[in-house]
Write a structure and sequence with these properties.
heterodimer, A: Methylamine Dehydrogenase, Chain H, 4-stranded antiparallel sheet, 32 strands, B: 97 residues, alpha+beta, 2 helices, 39% helix, dynein heavy chain binding (chain A), cell projection (chain A)
Chain lengths: 656, 97
C-alpha cells in the first residue's frame, strides 16, 4: 500500500491515507476506506470561509536559509561606523556525522593496512575509492587466530607485500598470551657527592654602576690601544720601567699618607664649622641693611663683622692690607712694626672671609713687613717690602715658606725701609715687574727675569742740598701709567714721571708732617687725596697747587682710601681708633660717619675697601684686622646716567 | 702635607662647639678620632651607611656627578661629613653656643 500525504498550504486540511501491511477483508476494508474518506477535523483547526480557503498563496522557494540573519552589521574602521554585511552565510547544516572511513591511499589507511597484514596487491585490484574490509567467517576462526598472532608481531615478514594468498587477520577475535618471567630482585645503589660550594651573590644595578662599568671598559680599551702603539716603538722600554717604578713609589706613598688625601675636605669642613660659629655674621654680611639709615638722613654706620687674628701676629702692627682682585673674599695683611726700636720678625698672612679663625696662608719673615701688593692679573704673586730694605716676591701656589724671589745687597736692595711696592703691567718681554719706594730716596723697578730679580733705578728723589729725601708713600695713576705721586716725610708731595729721572713735574706743599698716604681717585683722572700725621686729609687737583678740600680729623691720620664704587666717597682711619667716612656729594665739610671701632688706645693703621662687597677692613697695631659692613647711606652710588666723574666734578669748588 | 691636615683637624677640634672629629678610610674603619671608642665606632658605622646611600642617590640621578659634602643638622648638633678619595671626615658640632 502506498503511503501518501499531501498538503496544500498550512491552512488546508490534511488528508492522509493509512497504509496497512497485512491484507484485510474486503468488506472491512471498504468500510475502513470509506470512513477514511470522511473529513476528520482536528479540534483546534481554524474556521475559515470558502473564499479564504480558496485563496491561493504563492510560495517562492529560494535557496536562502530562512534562519540566517539578515541584519548583521560589522564595525568598519575605515568608515568609523557600523556597516551592514551584504553577504551572509546561507548554509544551514542539518546533520553532521563523523565517519570513520579512510581514503585508501592516505597515510593513515596504509598504516592500518600494513598493521593488518593485508597486501597492497589486493587493493590495487579493487581500485576505487571504497575500502573493502573482509569479515572472517566463523568456521575459520581457529586457523586464523594463529595467523593473527603471527601478524601481531611487528617484525613478521608475512605482513608485508609479496604474499598473494594471505590469510587476512581477524581484528576482533584474538586472545592474548603472556608468561611471567623471573624478576631479578632490585637493589638500590646510590652515592652522594659533596655539593658544589655556594656563595650568595647580590648586586644592585644602578645607573651609576652601569656608567662606571662602561667607563672602566673604555679605559681598558684605551690602555690596550696605547699598549699596541707602544709595542712597535721599543725605545720606550726604559721609560716604561722608570714609569713603573714611579708608579710603585706613588702607591706606597699614598698608602702611608692617609691623611694627605683629605686636605681639601678638611679645609672645607673647617670653613663649615666656622660658618656655624659665625653664622650670624655671614648672614649679616649678606643681608643685613641698617634700616635706621632712612631716618638718619645723611649719616651712616659701620656694622662690625669678623675679626681676624692670628697667634703668630700677636703684638705686631698691621702695616699693609691688600685685597685680592680675583678672589674677592681673600685679602693679604702684612705685619711688622712702625717703631724703630721694636723691630723684630714679621709675618705675611692671607685671610678669607670664609674662615676668620685661621689664615689661609702664613709666611713668617725675619724682618717686619712694611708694604705689600698683589698682582692684578696673576693673583698668586705677592710683592712685599721689608723694613730692612729688601723686597721679595711670594708665589702662593708654591709650597714652602720662602719667597720665590728676594733682593739682596748685590741685586740692589734699598738701604732704608721700603714704604710702598706696586705691581706694574708686564713689560715688553712679558716679564712681571713692580716698583718700590723707600726712604733712601730711590724709586726702583724690579723685574722678574727667570729666576732672578733684576733692579733698575728709576728715579733718585732729591731736594736742593739734601742728598736724598725720605719718601713715605707713593701711588701710580690709574690710567696714565707713567705718572705717579710721591709723598715724603717732610710733608711734600711730588708728581713725577717714570721716564723723567731727574726732575719732578710738580711739588705740592701738602702737609706739615709726614705724608702717610697718597691715593689717586679711581674715577677722576685729576684728583688725588693725601693724609698725614698733622691730623689733616686733603684732596687735590693735580693741576692746582693748593688743595681743594681740607678735613681736620683731630688725630693723626694713619691711612686714607677711596671707595671703588663712588668717586666722592673715601674713608680715613686715625690713631685714636676711629674710622671716618666722607661722601663729598652728601656733605662737603663733615664726615657722614665717624665711628670708634676699637679701644681708644689701639691705633688704626690701615684701611681698605673691598672691591665688590660693601665691606671695609681695618688693621690696627695689636695685630687684629676687623671687618665692617657699610650701611646703605655710605654706599650711595651714582645713578647710571650720571657718571662718577661728573659727580666729583660737580662737587669740586670752582677755581678761578 | 699630612701634618697640615693634622693641624687643621686639631684647629677644628678646638673651635667653639665642636664635639669631635672622626676620620674613616675607604673600608669604613676609623683611622683617627677625637672621641671615645664606642662613639667613634657608632658614628663611623652609621654615617658610612648614610653616605653610601646619599652617594648612590646623587650618582643615580647623574652618573657623572659625585657626592662631596653632607650636612646633617638636628636640634642639638650638626654633623658634617666630607668625602674625598673614598675617605670620610666627620665633624660633630653643637649648636646654641
Amino acid at each position: 500500500m502506498q503511503d501518501a500525504f499531501f498538503c496544500r498550504g498550512s491552512n488546508e486540511t490534511v488528508l492522509f491515507v493509512q497504509d496497512k501491511e497485512d491484507g484485510m477483508e474486503h468488506g472491512d476494508e471498504w468500510d475502513e476506506w470509506s470512513h477514511g474518506k470522511t473529513l476528520t477535523k482536528p479540534p483546534d483547526q481554524l474556521e475559515l470561509t470558502e473564499a479564504e480557503l480558496n485563496e491561493t498563496f504563492t510560495r517562492i522557494l529560494t535557496a536562502t536559509n530562512p534562519h540566517a540573519p539578515q541584519n548583521i552589521v560589522r564595525y568598519s574602521f575605515k568608515k568609523r561606523s557600523y556597516k551592514p554585511i551584504s553577504a551572509v552565510d546561507q548554509m544551514a547544516v542539518h546533520f553532521v556525522l563523523e565517519g570513520n572511513l579512510l581514503y585508501k591511499d592516505s597515510d593513515e589507511a596504509r598504516r592500518q593496512m600494513a598493521k593488518q597484514g593485508l597486501p597492497a596487491v589486493i587493493f590495487v585490484v579493487f581500485g576505487s575509492a571504497c575500502i573493502g574490509f573482509t569479515q572472517a567467517t566463523p568456521g575459520e576462526d581457529a586457523a586464523e587466530m594463529e595467523e593473527v598472532e603471527e601478524e601481531d608481531r611487528p617484525d613478521s615478514a608475512a605482513s608485508k607485500t609479496g604474499k598473494k594468498e594471505q590469510k587476512l587477520t581477524n581484528q576482533i577475535n584474538f586472545c592474548e598470551r603472556a608468561s611471567q618471567t623471573l624478576n631479578n630482585p632490585p637493589r638500590e645503589r646510590n652515592c652522594q657527592t659533596e655539593p658544589p660550594p655556594r656563595c650568595n651573590f647580590s648586586a644592585i644595578a644602578n645607573q651609576w654602576e652601569i656608567y662606571d662599568a662602561y667607563v672602566e671598559e673604555l679605559q681598558k680599551q684605551e690602555k690596550n690601544k696605547e699598549k699596541q702603539k707602544a709595542i712597535p716603538s721599543k725605545k720606550d722600554d726604559e721609560d716604561d720601567d722608570r714609569g713603573k717604578k714611579k708608579m710603585i713609589l706613588m702607591e706606597t706613598q699614598t698608602q702611608s699618607d692617609d691623611l694627605c688625601k683629605m686636605a681639601k675636605a678638611t679645609k672645607i669642613l673647617e670653613r663649615m664649622v666656622n660658618q656655624n660659629i659665625y653664622g650670624d655674621l655671614a648672614i649679616d654680611f649678606k643681608y643685613y641693611e641698617d634700616c635706621s639709615d632712612e631716618f638718619r638722613e645723611q649719616e651712616g654706620t659701620l656694622l662690625p663683622l669678623w675679626k681676624f687674628q692670628c697667634d703668630k701676629a700677636k703684638k705686631l702692627t698691621v702695616t699693609a692690607l691688600c685685597w685680592n682682585k680675583k678672589y674677592q673674599d681673600l685679602f693679604a695683611a702684612g705685619m711688622g712694626s712702625y717703631d724703630f726700636s721694636k723691630q723684630g720678625r714679621g709675618v705675611l698672612v692671607f685671610y678669607t672671609l670664609k674662615n676668620s679663625s685661621f689664615p689661609e696662608y702664613i709666611y713668617p719673615t725675619n724682618c717686619g713687613i712694611m708694604c705689600l701688593d698683589i698682582h692684578e692679573q696673576v693673583s698668586y704673586l705677592v710683592a712685599v717690602g721689608f723694613y730692612d730694605g729688601c723686597v721679595a716676591v711670594y708665589n702662593l701656589k708654591e709650597d714652602g715658606q720662602q719667597p720665590v724671589y728676594q733682593s739682596t745687597a748685590k741685586t740692589g736692595k734699598h738701604t732704608d725701609p721700603v714704604w710702598q711696592v706696586r705691581w706694574q703691567n708686564d713689560d715688553m718681554d712679558g716679564n712681571h715687574n713692580f716698583y718700590s719706594v723707600s726712604s733712601d730716596g730711590r724709586v726702583v723697578s724690579w723685574t722678574l727675569v727667570k729666576n732672578e730679580l733684576v733692579s733698575t733705578d728709576i728715579i733718585k728723589l732729591t731736594m736742593e742740598g739734601v742728598p736724598h729725601l725720605s719718601t713715605a708713600s707713593f701711588d701710580f695713576h690709574k690710567q696714565i701709567n707713567h705718572l705717579f705721586l710721591v709723598g715724603t716725610q717732610e710733608g711734600k708731595i711730588h708728581k713725577c714721571f717714570k721716564t723723567y729721572s731727574s726732575q719732578y713735574l710738580e711739588t705740592y706743599d701738602a702737609h706739615t708732617l709726614a705724608v702717610d698716604a697718597v691715593k689717586w681717585n679711581h674715577f677722576h683722572p685729576k684728583v688725588f687725596i693725601s693724609c698725614s700725621s698733622d691730623w689733616t686729609v686733603k684732596i687735590w687737583d693735580h693741576t692746582i697747587n693748593t688743595p681743594m678740600f681740607t678735613f681736620e680729623l683731630y688725630a693723626a691720620v694713619g691711612d686714607v682710601a677711596w671707595a671703588p664704587y663712588s668717586s666722592t666717597v673715601f674713608a680715613a682711619v686715625t690713631v685714636n681708633g676711629k674710622v671716618h667716612i666722607f661722601d663729598l656729594n652728601v656733605n662737603k665739610y663733615e664726615a657722614i660717619c665717624q665711628q670708634q671701632v676699637v679701644a681708644k688706645k689701639t691705633k688704626l693703621t690701615h684701611i681698605e675697601f673691598n672691591l665688590v662687597h660693601p665691606l671695609i677692613i681695618v688693621g690696627d697695631d695689636q695685630g687684629y684686622i676687623t671687618s665692617f659692613k657699610l650701611s646703605p647711606n655710605l654706599r650711595k652710588q651714582p645713578k647710571v646716567r650720571q657718571s662718577s666723574l661728573s659727580r666729583l666734578t660737580d662737587v669740586m669748588p670752582m677755581q678761578i | 702635607m699630612a701634618s697640615e691636615v693634622e693641624e687643621t683637624l686639631k684647629r677644628i677640634e678646638g673651635q667653639r662647639g665642636v664635639v669631635g672629629t672622626v676620620v674613616c678610610n675607604a673600608d669604613g674603619i676609623p683611622i683617627r678620632s677625637s672621641l671615645d671608642g664606642v662613639a667613634t665606632a657608632q658614628y663611623a658605622r652609621l654615617l658610612r651607611k648614610l653616605t653610601v646611600m646619599a652617594k648612590s642617590a646623587v650618582r643615580d640621578i647623574d652618573p657623572q656627578n659625585d657626592l662631596t659634602f653632607l650636612r646633617l643638622r638636628s636640634q642639638k648638633c650638626e654633623i658634617m661629613v666630607g668625602l674625598e678619595n673614598e675617605f670620610l671626615v666627620i665633624v660633630i658640632q653643637n649648636l646654641h653656643q
